[in-house]
Amino acid sequence: MNQTPDISPTTTALLVAPAAVLMFGVFVLPFLFLVVLSFWSQVPGSLSLDTSFTLANYVRIFTDSYYLGGLWTTLWLSGFVTLVCLLLALPLARWIVLHAGRAKGLLIGISILPLICGALLPTLGLVNLLSPLGFINGALKSMGLIQSSLPLLGNITGVTIGLVQAFLPLMVLPLINTIERIPHDYEMAAMSLGASPLVVWRRVLLPLMLPGIVAGSLLVFCAALTAFVTPQILGQGKVITFASLAYQQAAMVLDWPFASALGIVMLMFLALAGVLGALISRRLARAS
Length: 288
Prior knowledge:
This protein has 13 helices and two strands. By secondary structure, the protein is mainly α. A hairpin with a 6-residue loop joins β1 (41-42) and β2. The mean pLDDT is 89.
């Protein structure tokens, strides 16, 4: 029987200290400063900061129609991207688990390539594909299906395509992990009792896939909510998201307190999504 070697509390503290100091220095301290800064204000006509406590930045976010519009666009776009990723990932993950065979590892590796490459390179590739002179419009014109180029850049369509391409792996991987744990006998038993494939999906497979669906949906929604590079490039400044608003205020307007408030609001929605995901997961665990 293997025994865990005794490690003194001092040794444990020394081993943990570098990571703890790093986390405190690069995450906790900047986050605390962000929170404090969001309650300050910019002196009009100056880069100086007024350190008096104020809620003006938050009042401005939730009363100005421009920022409310950006917030609403970000929320519904994140939800729509999550739904599209779910609809695409469900059959893909199931096919990889049941039919990919020896190619399963290769397909999983290919599916996570967008995550490994980062957001910039795939997005620049999509610009070439979706532009008026790009591959898609060129192919459709050569087949005689369209006469003029489809507008695929600078609108919600292009941003949605880019976000789905970027975050589809975040939905596929949890679903693969969940589907692998579902005994194939359940599906066969339901079909032997006369259930149609649609009924098998609705009454047997989907309920068993719910933990993976919840985990994948939470990951995709949070990633889409905070995405900046893809909406900025494919939206070409015409699709206003909350991340782009925060960037404009921090890098162009130089109103750092207001940009901090925008960031805190975005983090609040991330926290809310995390709490909802945790509650749903806990309820599913109790029901199983």
